[in-house]
């Protein structure tokens, strides 16, 4: 099989894996393609809640034809017994001839053991094909297993002059409906949507994915040190149907903790720094809870705390063609910078028009493979 064909099959596996993003945590969203005699005989991606795994789905499609086939998978097949047997053993039992995996699995229960199992069984194993793309797709899972925290995307929809609301707090809507639809699609590809307590109080958001036919909603996450959130708001009313995680200080009112627990929310006590929730500890708690990809939608104080802590991996901006002025609320709160060189720079990855607005995507300069 030619390198060009291999690349096309791996690119398809990556596309398939992206279908699971936001729905498979704490497991990675893996894609798998099985090929025999230059014909695809099986394909799969990790299913909601993380099982069955992509390889299992693809092998079920391929059936007996998998014997002697080539397998293209975006992450090293697992090697440990969990709720299901390891995928490496399933590939061995199916009699495949070659496994091409984009990148190794950083989970210490795997981390080379899957490839070792396959080679010991006489299967050819190759690694690295479209590895950069795979690192990007699996950033959240890899970052969580390596650093203990999920990947963070910070989204800001603002006026041309960087304001997210007027001086009176009016913010709906700065950007037009096409941009908001793209934001909903981005929410769907993340495990959780996160806002600060001020945003939850001011906007009473639902933080759900709407009008896209999505059945599995991301977890709604709110940071509120004292849990002073509206008990009759949308989040409280829907907490039993759509998961809500409240990150709060360890000094929060026990009665409020119990009230929110009774409403159906999950409560995560977090550390405090400078009278605010410690953003680093918040992400560590969310990572321990299993989340791998967080989509943060503000407000400005939370955005500032994440940026100040060097905790933002991707910036997504939607800029509208209007100006609000200095009295408006800035998209990012005070950072205390007095030297320009102290400001972290991000690499531009994408710019495009979305309806009448402009979307720009930026990523941190260090990738997860260097962690």
Question: What does it look like?
Answer:
The strands form four sheets. The chain has a nine-stranded mixed β-sheet, sandwiched between helices. The chain has a five-stranded mixed β-sheet with strand order 2-1-3-4-5, with helices on both faces. A two-stranded antiparallel sheet has the order 7-16. Helix 3 (87-94) links the parallel strand 3 and strand 4. By secondary structure, the chain is α/β, with parallel strands linked by helices. The chain is built from twelve helices and 18 strands.
Layout of secondary structure:
Elements: H1 3-18, E1 31-36, E2 39-45, H2 54-62, E3 70-73, H3 87-94, E4 98-101, H4 113-120, E5 124-127, H5 131-137, H6 139-147, E6 151-158, E7 163-165, H7 177-188, E8 192-196, H8 197-203, E9 219-223, H9 234-238, E10 244-249, H10 254-263, E11 266-270, E12 272-273, E13 276-277, H11 279-288, E14 293-296, H12 300-308, E15 314-319, E16 329-330, E17 346-354, E18 357-364
Helix pairs in contact: 3-4
């Amino acid at each position: 099989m030619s390198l060009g064909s291999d690349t096309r099959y791996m690119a398809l596996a990556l596309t398939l894996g992206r279908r699971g993003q936001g729905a498979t945590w704490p497991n990675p969203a893996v894609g798998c393609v099985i090929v025999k005699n230059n014909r695809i005989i099986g394909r799969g991606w990790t299913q909601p809640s993380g099982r069955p795994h992509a390889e299992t789905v693809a092998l079920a499609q391929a059936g007996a034809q998998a014997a002697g086939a080539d397998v293209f998978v975006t992450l090293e097949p697992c090697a440990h017994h969990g709720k299901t047997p390891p995928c490496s053993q399933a590939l061995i039992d199916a009699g495949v001839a070659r496994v091409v995996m984009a990148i190794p699995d950083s989970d210490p229960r795997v981390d080379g053991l899957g490839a070792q199992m396959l080679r010991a069984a006489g299967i050819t194993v190759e690694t690295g094909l479209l590895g950069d793309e795979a690192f990007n797709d699996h950033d959240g899972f890899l970052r969580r297993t390596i650093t203990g925290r999920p990947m963070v995307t910070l989204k800001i929809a603002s006026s041309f002059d960087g304001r997210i609301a007027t001086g009176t707090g009016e913010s709906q809507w700065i950007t037009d409906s096409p941009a908001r639809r793209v934001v909903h699609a981005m929410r769907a590809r993340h495990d959780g949507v996160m806002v600060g307590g001020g945003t939850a109080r001011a906007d009473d958001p639902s933080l759900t994915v709407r009008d896209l036919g999505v059945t599995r909603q991301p977890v709604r996450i709110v940071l509120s040190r004292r849990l002073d959130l509206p008990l009759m708001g949308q989040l409280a009313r829907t907490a039993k149907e759509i998961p809500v995680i409240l990150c709060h200080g360890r000094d929060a009112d026990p009665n409020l903790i119990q009230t929110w627990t009774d409403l159906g929310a999950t409560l995560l006590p977090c550390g405090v720094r400078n009278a605010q929730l410690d953003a680093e500890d918040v992400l560590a708690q969310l990572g321990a809870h299993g989340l791998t990809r967080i989509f943060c939608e503000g407000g400005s104080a939370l955005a500032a705390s994440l940026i100040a802590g060097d905790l933002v991996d991707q910036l997504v901006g939607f800029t509208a063609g209007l100006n609000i002025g200095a009295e408006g609320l800035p998209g990012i709160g005070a950072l205390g910078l007095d030297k320009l060189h102290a400001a972290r720079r991000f690499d531009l990855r994408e710019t495009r028009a979305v309806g009448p607005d402009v979307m720009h995507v930026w990523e941190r300069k260090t990738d997860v493979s260097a962690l």
